[in-house]
Amino acid sequence: MSLRPLRIAALLSALLVAACSTTVSNTASPASEATARAQLEQAARAALGKLYLNSKNATELSTNAAGILVFPSVVKAGLLIGGEGGKGVLFSADGAKVLGYYSVAAVSCCLQVGAQDYSEAMILMTPEAIQGLNKADGWAVGMGPTVVVSNSGAAKDITTTTEKADVYAFIYGQSGLMAGLGVQGQKITRLVD
């Protein structure tokens, strides 16, 4: 069995994730990086407001949360091999304080075609979930805390009295066309301050 198709797939995946990723470049000036972070924070606050407006569950869960990680724009694209990327902000449970800036990336290989942009909010219910985000090697969804995904009104039975997971992920505001939306296999990494 030849390894060439796997190498080509890996290379294409890396290129796709690089194209989708909106990670801040290290060559940016401190002033331009501060402006970019202010814009990201503003976009994340607007995306969180949209979630609260459309999801009673998210609003209720956030009252007992340790923090809320919001990615206002995650871009996902694929043609057999897919990738996604975006940047987000971790807010304190009340949304008043910024606790950090993060990037998300993922690569997938399956039957897929299309491109999509969406918002994602992760309501972190425990301090341990937040600690996991700040580890040097990042946090891989599916390898760490228990994550429950709610998509467009799903999981209506989640309330503050029935919650059992460490993290509740909400995917909303989708535009574009792509099948198989989810958070499995995502890698979340803290951006350098």
Automatic annotation (TrEMBL):
Residues 1-30 form the signal peptide. InterPro entries: Ysc84_actin-binding. This is Twin-arginine translocation pathway signal protein. The keyword Signal applies. It comes from the Bacteria. PROSITE patterns: PROKAR_LIPOPROTEIN. Keywords: Signal. Pfam families: Ysc84. Residues 106-189 form the Ysc84 actin-binding domain.
